[in-house]
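User: Before I run my own analysis I want an independent prediction to cross-check against. Here's the chain; please return only the structure tokens and, at the end, one sentence I can use as a sanity check.
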Amino acid sequence: MKNLNTKLMILLAGISLMGVGCSKNQLQASDSTAVVDGNTATGVTPLAPDSTDSSSSASGYTNSAAFTPVSLQEFNSYVATHPLNAPTNFKVTMNLQNNGSNRYGGTVQISYTDTGYTYNGTFTAGTGNNVSIKTLKDNDTPEAQFNYWYSSSSGPVFSGFFQDSYGSIVVIVDKYVSVSGGDAQGGANVISGSIYYKNFAQSYATQSPYRKCWFIYDGPYNCRSSAIINKTSLVPDGYRKLGTFSYMSKSAVFQ
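Assistant: Structure tokens:
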């Protein structure tokens, strides 16, 4: 009888300890602010930071800003289609729209002047959904699925894919600050960040018209980056840094 009571006491103690362990894990999960695929523990994708800045013309900040390449050699590698001579006036312009689920599609344009000519590279991500085709993946998924703001240890950040016919870029916004102007200028919430690029490999095959490159899983038109898809880093794997931009109006860029 004594042995039986002893065994029962040991069994009950073990169950009690198991209950404490599960309770601790549940508390850790509910208290966690870790980002999983860009979503908080509640599964809600954060909105872009609130913007109460003055109009672009009043504040002096717009959806365009000077772009500073990492180097002319790197910019020449990005251009690829023709050699550069003495490029100047580098600029980036962004027009992004909320697709209704806090994903942002639109256009990102990188421009420069060389020997009297202005060149523009326009990269896009749609605000609609992928068409549904039985043989393809990601049917009805928002085309801008991976383009959104999320919380990091340094504050709100944004990362997203865009592409043209020659390759893709990743836009990173990692600085978001409020600045005040003088007597003639209102305050503004401004953003700064970086752009990374990946040129497509030469191929006789053409890209599928039904999917952007971040939904292509293999071959020369695959531009996926796990760091951007899973929001684990602001440095996209498989990409090269092209340059940086500073002081764009947040409300002019993210509409």
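Sanity check: The two ends are 75 Å apart (CA to CA).
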